[in-house]
Amino acid sequence: MQAIANSVEEGLRKKKVRPLSTEGIREGHWAVIDYGDVIAHIFLEPVREFYNIEGLWPEAQLIEVE
């Protein structure tokens, strides 16, 4: 989880984009990286199931990233 969050931040930092805020990265179970118009939520699978983010906004467009 931390590696994914770090990769997101590093990739965008190379493009001179910095997050407005981050939360949870050090704890290692979940992370939120806020870029203003885009917010990255990164979870370990059990935590993702618990919070059910997709269930909170069922009308939101899902975008899969390879």
Q: Enumerate the spans where pLDDT stays under 50 for 5 or more consecutive residues.
A: none
Q: Do you know the CATH topology?
A: Beta Polymerase, domain 2
Helix content: 25-40%
Architecture per CATH nomenclature, i.e. the level-2 architecture: 2-Layer Sandwich
Quick one: biggest sheet?
A: 3 strands, antiparallel
Order of helices and strands: HEEEHH
Description:
It is a single chain. By secondary structure, the chain is an alpha+beta fold. Helices cover 36% and strands 20% of the residues. It has helices at residues 2-14, 45-51, 53-56, and strands spanning 21-23, 30-34, 39-43. The protein has a 3-stranded antiparallel sheet with strand order 1-2-3. A hairpin with a 6-residue loop joins β1 (21-23) and β2. The two termini are 15 Å apart.
Features:
single chain, 66 residues, alpha+beta, Beta Polymerase, domain 2, three-stranded antiparallel beta sheet, 3 strands
